Structure formats: structure tokens, C-alpha cells
Amino acid sequence: MNVQPDLDFIRSLKEAGGDTLKKCYQCATCSVICPLSKDGKPFPRKEMIWAQWGMRDKLVTDPDVFLCHHCGDCTTHCPRGAKPGDVLSSIRAYAYTFYGWPKPLAKLASSAKGLPILIGLPVVVIFIMWLLSGAMRFPTSEEFSQYGYQRFFGTWDFYWYAKNIFFIVLIMVPSLGLALFSSFKGISTMWKTMSEDAGLNKEYRPSVGQFLKDYLWPSLIEIVKHSRFRECTTNTDRVQGHLPLMLAFIGLAIVTTWSLLKNDVLGLIWPSLHGPMAITDPFKILANISAIALLFGVGVLWANRKKAEAEMNTQATFYDWFLIWEITAVGVTGVAAQLLRWAEMPVTGYIVYFLHLVSVMMLFLYLPYTKFAHLMYRTSAYAFEKYRQSVYATNS
Amino acid sequence: MTDEQGTSGAVLVVGGGISGLTAALETAEVGNDVFLVEKGPSFGGRVAQLNQYFPKLCPPSCGLEINFRRVKDNRKIRTYTMTTVKAVKGGPGNYEVTLETEPRYVNSNCTACGDCTAACPDETANDFNFGMNNSKAIYLPHEMAFPQRYVIKKSALSPAGADAIKAACKYDAIDLDMQPEMFTINVASIIWATGWVPYEPTKMENLKFGQSKSIVTNMMIERMAAPSGPTGGKIVRPGDNKAIDSIAFVQCAGSRDENHLEYCSHICCMATFKQMSYVREQYPNAKIYVFYIDLRTPGKYEKFREVRMADANASFIKGKVADIILEADGGVTVVAENALTAEKITQKVDMAVLATGMQPSLGLQDAPAELNLDASGFIISDFDKAMISAGCAKKAADVVTCTQSSTAAALKAIQVSRR
Predict the structure, then answer these.
(1) Which residue of A has its CA nearest to B258?
(2) Which residues of A touch B (CB under 8 A)?
(3) How far apart are CA A44 and CA B344, in angstroms?
(4) Contacting residues for A334 by C-beta, under 8 A, at least 6 apart
(5) Which tens digit of pLDDT belongs to each residue from A149-181?
(6) Where are the CATH 3.50.50.60 domain residues in chain B?
């Protein structure tokens, strides 16, 4: 076999913390130690040699790469310090860039060099929107205490649909839309190749209902319960951070969806629904609890990451830290904006609110290219695993 | 013969295993005076514990006896057992070394008649056989022990036992009041042949040594296979003495592993191939499984490997055993990934042999002198200081390599002594 190693691929693995892969001497301790690796064809030993050989195409379509939860058990037991956990993490980082669309944006989001543009882009977009909206000024204390950030992008007389909401939707929906489109594109490609590699029955195509019921739903249950995460031993502490963080995101997604529904759909029928939620509104309470859970969760993960870097000599990478920073920024600016509203400090409040919009837009826009993409790709790998094991797929 | 103070040309050899014996003989046969000190009660070291050497599969008596003979006949060599180095002062050409001899509690009247052992009621774990059986509290270290003199483990001896053995000894050889003795010698150079210890198998928690009698080490197999060993030469499962229908050899158990011994112990592959022969001789149909990372049988040892790999009932799996599961019937299941097929292997066997590696003795204890040790505890020779390492104190090696490095060490020691 004539292996043509992809040097760019190897270089990008090094950048994303997989520099240790060359130390691997294929003893396969990792494949036995891994609590998530099933019998049959275990991982991550085979991924280590594929990575050494620069076999990019094999790795980006290997479900095991995405099923790895980076427990670190393999890294603890590795006799060579090859850190298979870190290498698989760096392969995932590469895969997200590989599948990302549009390519230049995906590339940009893959390294710290892109950081000025990554931050600058949403800053400029939102600032232009602010200029376009014609609001362009800080509110008076009276306005601020009455409307809060509801008139950040100004107001107009057409009370069926608030101007502020119009602008926020204008910014966030395309951002999220692009992210979802890119993810869908990436996952489709990945899924198709995975099916081919696994030699699955080509005749079988599950219906949408079947897919949701048999493959996706059980996967989501498993993910929410953190069943696999809990099988780890070395890094099991991460559950304490990841679980509240994930629940916070679910909570905030519910609040955002309700808010969108309330303002953009129901608000068209009952205009009185426009306006800020009261602090006692159940959704507002959910939002605040979620915000606290988010800050707590990301704090635990931040500390765990620091600990791993100190104790296990894990390389500090842009890939890992960008998501931690991003989520922290969303949480801190969100909570601070609310506190400043209560403190009736309009100027600082508006600036923080602006930063909050920037960080939220970053979270949406860069979702498919950064570590946040595990949300999409790992869930798909879970579903694929169930699909692969199902009788329909294997009966040919 | 030298006096107790030594002469300027004298050489101290620390360690009386195959390397120390070789270095002492080579030095003395050139004409230098040699002090040969050994921590244990007899000479022979790890080699004495083996059943056979590879590759010729001759018993260790073959090499040791002739060396003992040469030592006995050579008036230039002074031997000290149960003796350790306490301090080293001075410099090359003129070292003053403080030695301490532990009490043996048996004096030179001993004829090794064995009456004391027969009379002794007290037993103690037999360390020579890795605790697989007991010996009496007064015992001969092993069959071909040199010197042929009994030794007492005083901590295991009861007052009644003391009376019994004293009464049994016709030669008045038992002296329970013996005290440790300190003395100093002057030497020009020092050869360190402090050897190795088998790596502590309980440190590999995933291999569960000590949790099942069916998990043994390669050195335990040597003792079992030896006619003088705890089972009279029969390889059976400790505990229930079950005959072996299947056996797994777990290579690199603690070797080539940053978390344990980071180096290759050099001999374990050959030891396993050798032990395959022991098993095959006793069990013509037993299934043998060898789990390895790489099979390292350099040079002339390749032939030895080829012969054993042709065994139809032996399987070789490229993949390190990283988990061992205890089974209710007393056996174990070893778990590995076969890296050639990418499949997970779980193999149930009657007995699992951990091919544990060599840890240099000085990796476990402080050196009694200013020595240049590497990170693992191997001694790096410093010729300017006349501190020379030999055998497995220098690097993990087979017997042939040890004797070669000992001969080389002898030459270096002599050069310093004549400067």
C-alpha cells in the first residue's frame, strides 16, 4: 500500500494539541483501557496509527473519533506519553474545519491567528446594524429604567413587530442559519462515507420518523444522562461541569425559542406580548437559573482544563480554550447586562449588552467550526452507531 | 595474599552474581587483589535462581560451579557474604571503603550436614522461591550455595526452635549472639555489579498480580521449572496445582512504560521463548498465547525465536495485555487488542505469566557512594573516579552480555590500579 501522508493534516494535529502522536508505538494499551471502546474493533489505537500515517480521509469519517469523550484514561495508562485522548481531540478539531462551510470561515475559526477577525466580524456587523437602526445613542436614565435594552436598536411606531426584535433576528437568525446549514452539509457528507465504510445496506433508508425515534432520540437520552461520560475514570470530574452547562444551554434554548415565538409570532397577534419579561415570569426565572448553571459549569470546565494542563501536561490549545472563553463571555456579559440594568447604569449597560450580542453571535456563527461543533458531530456519531447496529442497516 | 587493609592495587567488586564473579575472577587472574562482597548469604545472584540459561538451555550450575571453583582456587580473591558497602571515602587509587557484615548466626564450623534443618520446627517464606513455599528458619540458601553454609533468619526463629537446632548441631556451628561487624578496606578502584531485582508486579494495577494465584511472574516460572524448586520442577498453577491446559505470556509487563520501567528489559522476550520450551516439554498439547508489543530477539537469538514460533499450539498476538479479569474457576482472562487485525481479544487461560522486567538494584535504594546514576538507577561508569559498572547494574542485559561487560570492567579497574 502506498500511503501518501497529508502533511497539512499532521501539522494541524500538532497545532490542536496532538503533537504527542509520534510517540505512539502501537502497544494497544489504550484500546483495552478505554471505557467507551466497545468489543469488536476498539479505539483509539487504530486512530493513532492512521494519524501517524496522515490518513486524513479515514479519520474524518471514523465514528470512533467522535465517540471518544476525551476521558483521559488512555492518556493516563499510555506507556509512551503519546496521549491518545489529546490526539483524538485534535483530530476532531481538524474534522470540524474539514467539514466546515464556507471554507475560509472554517479555517479562520481554527486558530488563534483568526481571533482579531473572529471577534472583529460580529463587532462590525452589530455596530453597523446599530448605525443602520438609527438608534446610535445611549439612553437616558428614565428610558433605561423603563425599557432596559428593548430599544437598543431603537424603536418605531409599527407596534406589531418591534424594531429591536427585527434587528436581533436580522443578526442572529442568519448566523445560526449558516451554522446549521454548514453542520447539516458536513454531517451529510460524513454520514454517507461512514455508511459506505461500514458496508451498510444501501437499500435501507430510514424514514425521518424512524430516524428520530430509533436513532436520534435514544442518543439524546444517553447524552443528557451523560451515561458515557460517567464511565470515564481519569476525567470524570468533567461531568460536574459539562452537565450543568448542557442543561443551561437547553434552558437558554427554551427561553430563546419562547422569546422568538412570543415576539415574532404571537406578538403579531397580541401586541401586548412585546416587552421585557418580568423577573417573576417563569421563563425569566428559567433564564436566570440557566445563566447561573452556565457560569458554574464553564467555571468547573475552566478549572479542570487548567488542572489537566498542570498535572497531565495537556497542551493548552486554541481549540479548547476558544469555546471556554466564548461561553464565559456569553454568561458574564449576559448576567452583567442584567445587573447593570438593575443598577441603572445605561452607558456601561449598553456597552456590555453590545458585547453580549457580539459573544452570542460568535457562538452561533462559529458553531460548526469550533469545539462547539461536537454538539452536532458527536450526536450524529451516536445516532450513526445505533443505525449501524440496527437490523435494517446490516441485513443485506 | 593481601592483608585486611588491602594494597594499593586492590579492586573491590560489589555484588556476587554472575557479573561480580566474572569481574572478580578476571581481575584476580591478572594478578590484582580482589575483595568480592555479596549482600546475600551465598554467591550466584539471579542466575542461581534460573532453571536454564538461553539459548543453549543448560542449567546454571554449568556456569556457576566452574566460577565458584575458580574463586575458591584463587588466593587473590577474598569473599564476603551478607556484606554491604556502608561508606566510601578517598579517591581513585586510594579508596577507603567501610563494609558491614550482617550476622549469619552460623559459623565456619558448619559442614552443611542438614541436621539443624531437620530439627528446626520454625518455618518462613522461601524468598529464593519467591514465597511459593516455605523453608525452615535455618536453611541452606540453595542447593549449590557457595559457601555451603547454613544461615538463620533470626526473626523467624522461636526460642524453642533455637534450642532444638543448637541441640541438633554436632559441630557447635550455631552462634545466635553474632553481631554485625564493620571493617574498612583500601582499594584502588570499585566495580559495581549490584545487579537487578524483578520489577514489583503489584505496581501494574491493571494486571492484578497478587489477586489470583494464577497470575505469576516469569521468575516464578523459573523456580517452578527448576528441579530444586518449590514444585520439584513441575509447572502447575500455584494454589490448586492444576495442570496447565492454556497459558498466556504477558510481555512488557512494566517494561517500555514511562509509568514503570521506561526502558526495554532486554531479556523478557527470550525468557518467554525459553519458558515456552519448559511448558511444551511438560504439556505437549497446552495452548500457549504470547501477547507482545515487539518480539526482540536480536542476532543469533532469531533462530531460537523461529523454532518456537513454529509451534502449532502457540499463538502470538501483537498487543499488550492491559487488563486481566479474574475467573471463578481460578483461571484468568487476559484482554488485549490485536493490532494486526484491530480486534479486541479476550483469552481465558489457566495461568498468566507476567514477563516482568529488570530494575537495577540501585533504582530502589540509595547508592552507598557518589555514583553517577541515570534516571532509572543504572550506573554510568566514571573511569576517572575508578567507579565502574558491570552487568545489569550498567544496563538490562542477558548473561552473555553481562560477562562481557564484566570483563571490560575488570580491565578498566586494573588500568586505574596501575596508574
Answers:
(1) A79
(2) 25-33, 37, 39-42, 45-46, 77-81
(3) 12
(4) A291, A356
(5) 988 998 888 877 888 889 999 999 999 999 999
(6) 11-101+180-197+359-417, 200-356
> Coil, strand or helix: which one is B37?
strand
pLDDT at site A395: 59
CATH class of residue range B200-356: alpha beta
Distance between CA B158 and CA B122 in Å, rounded?
Answer: 7
Whether the complex's predicted ipTM is more than 0.95 is answered with no
Q: Which residues contact B216 (CB under 8 A, 6 or more apart)?
A: B224, B238, B351, B352, B353, B354
Taking the CB of residue B182, how many other CB atoms lie within 10 A of it?
Answer: 11
The length of chain B, given as a count of residues: 419
Residues of A in contact with B259 (CB under 8 A): 77, 79
pLDDT tens by residue, A354-382: 999 999 999 999 999 999 999 999 999 99
CATH superfamily entry for domain B11-101+180-197+359-417: FAD/NAD(P)-binding domain (3.50.50.60)
CA-nearest residue to B322 within chain A is: A29
Which residues on chain B place their C-beta less than 8 Å from a C-beta of chain A? 206, 252, 256-260, 293-294, 318-323, 335-339, 342-344, 346
pTM above 0.95, yes or no: no
Yes or no, beta carbons of A33 and B322 under 8 Å apart: yes
Q: Which residue of B has its CA nearest to A79?
A: B257
Residue ranges of the domains in chain A? 7-99, 104-394
Which tens digits make up the pLDDT trace of B238-275? 999 999 999 999 999 999 999 999 999 999 999 999 99
**pLDDT exceeds 60 at position A144:** yes
Smallest Cβ distance to A42: which of B252, B321, B344? B344
Task: Find the closest chain B residue to A31 by CA distance.
Answer: B337
A45: nearest CB among B259, B294, B339 = B339
The residue type found at A68 is C
